[in-house]
Design a protein that fits this description.
The protein is α/β, with parallel strands linked by helices. The chain is 40% helix and 14% strand. It is built from 5 helices and 5 strands.
Amino acid sequence: MQQSAILLVEDNPDDAELTVLAFKNNRIANEIVVARDGAEALDFLFGTGAHSANPPGLPAVVILDLNLPKVPGIEVLKRIRATERTAMLPVVVLTTSVEETDVLGCYRSGCNAYVQKPVSFDDFVDAAGKLGLFWLVLNVLPPTGN
């Protein structure tokens, strides 16, 4: 896997498909790996479970839903930040929640950005394009191994 891949952690198949479509509509050609729950995301990031035989490299960015089965998004975020290998990995929370406790909890746990999912398709496509442009083109990632 290339450093430019995106890990999309989203349990709702419609939202995952919409996100992938929005990236394609914005000409974001990066590989998109979809994890359907928090446990699958952690297996992918840490080379465990289904990924233990051939652990992938780290993605350029993780786009993380909060309300996930098996392991909640906030716990995924905390585990990412708790491990040296993944501590600097950019994590963008993309969720429907605008609850103050969710926003504060995510920032306190180390998210890099918190974005509310837009309701309309056009707004969602626009937001996905801006996310992709910033995190995959404009943002400078820390050197690997640091």
